[in-house]
Amino acid sequence: MSRVRLVVLLLAAVLAASCRTARPRFPRAAEGALLLIGGGLDDDQQPVFDRFLALAGRDRPPRIVVVTAASGDQDDMATGKVAALQTWWPGLPCEVVRRETTTEATVAAIDRATGLFFTGGDQQRITDRYRPGGRDTPEWLAMRRLLQRGGVIAGSSAGCAMMGERMLLGGSSGDALGDGGPRVGPGMLFEPWVMTDSHFFERHRTGRLVAALEATGQRLGIGVSEDGCVELDLATGVLTGIGTAEALLLDIGALHRDGPHRRAVRALRVPQSARIDLRERLQRPVAAPPPRPPAAPAAETIVEEGQNRQLASWRLFARAAEGGVWQLALDGHRLVAWPAGDGESVFDVEVGTAPAATDTGR
Fold it and tell me: Which tens digit of pLDDT belongs to each residue from 264-320?
C-alpha cells in the first residue's frame, strides 16, 4: 500500500470517528437515572414516588432538592411537591431551589442531594436559568456530578420536556407540521438518546414530536402521558415503564416525506414494567415497516371534554398494534396507523386533512 493511500485511509478513519462521536456531547461517566413524568402528577401515584425515592436512597439516605425554575407560582409548587414527597417518606429532607436562588446556594444544595425533582411550567425557564444557549454553568455541572455519583433527576411536564440535547419549546402538532415547523431549542443534555415530550396523549402531541425529530435529525422520541412515568438508566440506556399511565416511543428511522405528509413512522407503547434498550435499538439496522394495508381505516373518535383524560391518541395506537387500520383526525392533520408486529405499530401523518386547533401548553 502506498504512503499516500495509507494517509488517506487514516484521515478517513479519523473523520468517521469524529462524526460518530461529535453529536451529542455527553459525558460517559454518568451512572444515575432520569425519571420522565408526563405532567399532571397526582399525589397518590405511589409507583412514581416510590421509584423516585428508591433511586434517591439506593445506597444512602435520600436527600431531595425540589427545583421550581419552570413554574410560575414557585412557592405554591414547592409547597405541594414537598408535601407529596414527605407523605410517601415522612421526615424526608427536602430543600427548594428557586430561579432566584444564587449560584453558590444552588450548587451547594445540589451537591448535598441524592435526587432532584424539577416541577412543571415552562421548560425554557429551566434552560435559561441553568444552561442558557447550551452553555455549561456551575449549576449544570453540579447536576452532572449528581448523576455521576449515581443520583436521580426527575422532571414533570416541563421538567420532562427539557431532559435531552434538544427540546420542544411549545406549540401544537398542527403548528409544528405546518410551514413554520416545530419550535425547538437546546435542552439540558442529561441524556443523548431520545427527545422527550409530556402531556402526550392528552394534548395529541404525536405530530409535533414527529416534526421535531425530523427537523433535528434525532431518530427516537418518547412522549409520556399525564400521570405516566418512564425511567432511563444512564449507565445502560434502558428505558423502563414506571407509571400506571403509558408512554409512546417513536422511531423515525424509516420516515419519508410525501409532500407535506410524513410516512412510515414506528410507534411502540411503553406500559408499566416494559423495558426497551435504546442503545440496542439505535444500533439496529433500520428495517422497512410493513406497507399500509389497502383497507379503508376505521375512525377513532375524540370524546367530549371532561371524559376520561381525552385518550383518543392512546386508543389509536393500542388498537393499531392489535390489528386493522385506524385513523384519528386532529388539528390540521390526521394519523393513520396499522400493525407492524411485536407489539409495534406504524403510522402516517397526513397534513391538511382536518380543521386546525390550538395547544397552548408547553
Answer: 999 999 999 999 999 999 999 998 999 999 999 999 988 765 555 568 999 999 999
Dihedral sign of CA atoms 31, 37, 42, 46 in order: negative
Could you give the number of structural domains in the chain? 2
Instruction: Work out whether strand 220-224 and strand 195-197 pair parallel, antiparallel, or are unpaired.
Output: parallel
- Residue linked to cell 429532607: 93
With a CB cutoff of 8 Å and minimum separation 6, the contacts of 191 are: 26, 34, 163, 164, 232, 234
Q: How much is the pTM?
A: 0.89
Same domain, 111 and 201: yes
What is the distance between the alpha carbons of residues 121 and 75, in angstroms, rounded to a whole number? Answer: 13
Q: Are 119 and 97 in contact (CB under 8 A)?
A: no
Q: List C-alpha distances in Å: 131 to 35, 163, 249.
A: 19, 12, 26
Instruction: Quote the CA–CA distance of 303 and 309 in Å, as a whole number.
Output: 9
User: Do 242 and 309 fall within a single domain?
Assistant: no
Q: In terms of DSSP H, where are the helices of 157-236?
A: 158-161, 173-177, 206-216
